[in-house]
Every structure is written in structure tokens, then in C-alpha cells.
Amino acid sequence: MKVTLLTVGKTEDNYLKEGIEKYLKRLKHYVKVEVVELPELKNTKALSEDQQKSKEAELILKKVTVTDFLVLLDEKGLELTSPQFAAYLDKKALGSVQHVVFVIGGPYGFDDEVYRRANDKLSLSRMTFSHQMVRLFFVEQLYRAYTIIKGEPYHHQ
């Protein structure tokens, strides 16, 4: 199985980039992972929130194929514990899902068109985090999930 993290905009802060790279390097031992950063929209002051979401939707949906399993990281999504997330990923792999694409949207969330295409929605927390920080939190949880699947001692209960 391949995992892609699709983000709107680039990671800006070096400490976040370093953390993300740390976990991506570790993940190479478990799964093929790719991070795809879509360009941030320019001149957004003239656009409404809905217009921005619509333009971001075009960029997101261009990167997703018909066979991809699309998971939105969304505040309204299902909340899982780390072991539950590991089981979720394991079930996808055992169910012959070839490619899971996790998406972190822009500042206003997702357009309805993206919600319609999505196969699932997951929430990392009831709290609100910056989109920049969510990237690091997500790759750490992805790494944690694969260590749980492999029975390795990274996760403690």
C-alpha cells in the first residue's frame, strides 16, 4: 500500500519541516509515503471563502485518481485512538487498498465537491491546530500506527 499526504500550501517553519522529515525517514521502513504540497492560492483577498475552497478543490481533485481511497483530515471526522488508527490502516492494506490519500485542506476547510469524493473523514483532535502543525502531528501518528502494526515498542499503553 502507498500513502500520500496531500497538503494545500507548503510547510513554512524549519522546526516543522525537520520534524516531518524525521518521521518520513522512519516511515520508509514500513510503507511507501509521499508528501505532495499543492501551491497556495494567490490573490485570495478578492475571493470569498467558498471561492477559495472551490479553487483548492480543483487542485486537490486533479491529484486524486478514481481508484485512490481519499481520506480528509477534517474536524468533523471520526476520532480514533492511535491503536484504532493502526487497525484502520491495517484493514485498508488487508482489503487490497492500493493507495490511501490523506488530505489537509486550506484555512477554510473543504469544498462540497471534495467531501462528495472522499471515502472517509478522520479528525486528529477536537482541538483546532494550525494546518502547518497538523502535518507534523499526522506523520507522527502514521509512524506510530505502523510501529503498532509491527508490534514495536514506540507506542506505550
Automatic annotation (TrEMBL):
Signal peptide: none annotated. Keywords: Cytoplasm, Methyltransferase, rRNA processing, S-adenosyl-L-methionine, Transferase. Coiled coil: none annotated. Its main location: cytoplasm. Specifically methylates the pseudouridine at position 1915 (m3Psi1915) in 23S rRNA. Belongs to the RNA methyltransferase RlmH family. This is Ribosomal RNA large subunit methyltransferase H.
